[in-house]
Specification:
Four copies of one chain form a homotetramer. The first copy, chain A, is an all-alpha fold and 203 residues long. In chain A, 81% of the residues lie in helices and 0% in strands. Chain A binds a DNA duplex (21 and 21 nucleotides) through helix 2 and helix 4.
DNA sequence: CATGAATGAGGATTCATTCAT
DNA sequence: GATGAATGAATCCTCATTCAT
């Protein structure tokens, strides 16, 4: 929003600067958390003075919000990718190993957790997160519906929503699980995820 | 640890004081988060001076740590309860509806999220959390093993650990899910959880 | 207001601390102005940490406001003093030399100017100042009325208000005059003030 | 001074640029005060980049100083106007209603107050202000002297200086008075000003 | 044991000023 | 000439922690 409100002489460069800040923020946030990361830390990481950041973001919360927004876009992209597969249900099952492995990478889990924790306090963040979740659910539901029909399975909304939410819950639980038990055996977990997800998708 | 190091004239009262602080902390943490809750807020809620808290806890982190420790005890108790059932696997499935409903209550999910987020930055907290998780896993594994044997199912450790971690992941994902989608349909979710868990337990 | 809202264990000492801050503020404000004086400067002058000041005042504006409030009380006291004289008009004329000399003292004029300038921007301060002015006018008008009647002069409100405001304007102009022309001849000014004020009081 | 020191390619345009800045400054200063008005605000109002202002003014203080200087020129012009009247004392009395009404206009009083307050802290500004005051006094004194002689009244310098300073004090008090009591009755005040000024001029 | 007054380091934010383009 | 991106010092304020009483 800042970028559209504040007039910048060279919007190209402005966007690049914003990116610089967001990248630095990603690094600092995952190292120290949203509140633990100081503007000074972010500015140093971004190779930019602290004051200058305020030419691109109204305040620290705006950085967090923009950062969260960028992050949720990624999930949405993943959904769109899934949507284009011939047999999306099967594609989803095949995606499991990679997804699980990704989510068990220490550098991956910290940020989702920060975002979730923050949104349970900061209403503005909560709004962004929930809106993104709604869009994701819509996409996911469409995918499920098409996939289930393809396999001749029942596809009423209430049922599918329950299945969907259970599946999302499993993936959203991964960062938490990884935090509590960092050296868990990924392969065995993947096998179990496949069992559970197949049950949810194909029964 | 504080309680064992610091000499208190009346250990009875000291423990009661600690409880006062921990209860207050629970309230404040879930209201404002670990970092949002100030010692002043906690001390006022505990009906005790800020300075006095330091007679029972070395610092704010120690409160968080002790608080987390208390919290994990609850899970452990649940495990012990499960352990005493005739058919623990069946008991677990039957527990699902209540567990899920509990975890979808806003007052329930905030603290687990705070704890997880905090432990992904604070090594001290991470240590407490992981130790607790290890103990829980041991209990859970024993339960699973006994249950599976009872049902004549394979019970080798690697397999069971994968199943177990998948199940825990599902429950740990609930607070995250609830944050992202506060008005999700609990009943449909419960049905799906039962499908997934049955698959993990009995196949 | 702070002092009544925030609970202090020893209200006696709290008031003394507030006074310490206000005295330091007076010194700093007159040296550097309201905005030029930093909280650090004030706290150092008050012999107290910057943070501690916030136990007695909500913020810097509250210090300014309290300070202004204290200041306007002094004028009110002067009015009450005048009110008790046998021939208040005559007493007022006799007060002129001292009043003028006081207002020409460099340490005296800076603060009234700061207060006036601040109140033309800060609505909260404007409110305090205007309320004080209203009370002062009421007292002054009563004095004038009684005095004029004593001397058998017309005493209708509209007329007296005009005279009163002219007289107050003269005294409020002194700090401005002194700033613009610090080495002006006080005695000649006093003589002229007496001429003007006599005309306003007795014609 | 800046304008004479810094070499400008087109001095004509340079002066116009300075005027642009000074007009913008007038607007911003009266809206937000000297310290409240940021260089960014002034530059935007002036339709010029912030950096460019520094080609015409050494720093913000120089803007204030130049601005003050321009302001005092206006008073000087008024003096010259008065000087050309047949009976300047009478002319002065006749000017009172308009002058008083002007000074009671909110847009008029803010800047004099800012200037005065600023000059009581900023020695550079004080210097400009006092120098201007000295010149004004000289003009005023000459006018008074001529007028008094015209009316066959005593005209020794000490006496006239006192009268003059009393009169200036009255007018300089008006912005202060207006701030403290914004809804005062202008007409009654004018009548009283005439009484006081006549006494100072003709006795 | 208990208080809360007091500290001071650290945080977000603003803004006059500079300088490469 | 003219821009506005960039700096960094300075400001207000918060809060964990200490300590005299």
């Amino acid at each position: 929003m800042s970028i559209t409100e504040k007039r910048h002489h060279d919007p190209e460069k402005a966007l690049q600067r914003r990116r610089q800040v967001l990248d630095a923020a990603a690094e600092c946030f995952s190292r120290s958390g949203f509140h633990g990361a100081s503007m000074a830390e972010i500015s140093k990481t971004a190779g930019m003075s602290a004051g200058h950041i305020y030419n691109y973001f109204d305040n620290k919360d705006a950085i967090i919000a923009a950062f969260v927004e960028e992050n949720v876009e990624r999930v949405s992209a993943m959904m769109r990718d899934l949507q284009m597969q011939a047999d999306p249900l099967q594609a989803l099952v095949e995606k499991i190993p990679q997804s699980v492995r990704d989510d068990l990478d220490p550098r991956t889990w910290i940020l989702p957790l920060e975002i979730t924790a923050e949104s349970s306090r900061n209403p503005k963040i909560a709004c962004v997160v929930r809106d993104a979740d709604r869009r994701t659910r819509e996409q996911f539901l469409a995918i499920l519906k098409a996939g289930r029909r393809l396999h001749g399975l029942p596809d009423d909304d209430a049922l599918l929503e329950g299945r969907m939410n259970a599946m999302i819950t499993m993936f959203q639980g991964l960062p938490v699980r990884a935090t509590h038990c960092p050296d868990l055996d990924a392969e065995q977990l993947i096998a179990s995820f496949q069992i559970a997800l197949r049950a949810l998708l194909f029964s």
